[in-house]
Amino acid sequence: MPFFDEAKVIYAINYDLKSPGQDYEKLHEAIKGLGPWWHYLDSCWLVDTELRAQGIWTQISANVDQTDNVLVIRVSRDYAGWLPQAAWDWINARSGRMAT
Questions:
Q1: % of the chain with per-residue pLDDT over 90
Q2: Are 3 and 51 in contact, with CB atoms under 8 Å apart?
Q3: Spatial contact of 12 and 46, defined as CB atoms under 8 Å apart
Q4: What pTM did the predictor assign?
Q5: If you count DSSP H runs as helices and E runs as strands, how many of each does the chain have, helices first?
Q6: DSSP 8-state code for residue 90
Q7: Helical spans, DSSP H, in the chain
Q8: What whole-number distance in Å separates Cα of residue 27 and Cα of residue 64?
Q9: How many domains does the chain have?
């Protein structure tokens, strides 16, 4: 499977970073470099990117430790929760690029 989608889609990057005192700024910069991003929850980022999950992982994996846990998964249109309006605006503006 190729690392790129035919069009931009939304992926969630979720993690538990387990190394105390570790500087994860390089991870955050790698995520920001994937495309337009959203980050209202401590351990969750949404990215609007042409990369598939494996391509995203390839771009960010060098910036996490082997003891960390990371999940990269495509976002669907079936979502709900309690977030600030700015978060919903970002998500809703891109809902056409989400999995059905």
A1: 68
A2: yes
A3: yes
A4: 0.88
A5: 3, 4
A6: H
A7: 25-32, 53-60, 85-93
A8: 7
A9: 1
Tell me how crowded residue 4 is: count the other CB atoms within 10 A of its CB: 11
Q: Which residue has the tokens 């351990």?
A: 43
Distance CA 43, CA 26 (A): 15
**How many Cβ atoms are within 10 Å of 14's Cβ, its own excluded?**
14
Domain that holds residue 71: 4-97
Assign residue 88 the CATH number of its domain: 3.30.70.240
What is the per-residue pLDDT across 37-78, written as a single tens digit (0 to 9) for each? 999 999 999 999 999 999 999 999 999 988 999 999 999 989
- 76/68 Cα distance (integer angstroms): 25
